Amino acid sequence: MSTTDHTPPEAARWAARAGLPLPADRHAAVAAVADHIHSVVAVLRELDFGDTPPAPAYRAEQEQPDAAV
Fold it and tell me: Is the pTM of this model over 0.85?
């Protein structure tokens, strides 16, 4: 992932490319949200899940209830 901040003109260009009307006063906010999403995704990519199976492999009904404290 890039460590550079996204600019409001980039946000406007992305919105236009996706066919989404984006008012000029929203460009900076959308760029800030994009930066935040990229930073969160970067952290998630660094996590080591090791042998954790994918979510569809998990079956909640197979657990035995245990109220012991």
Answer: no
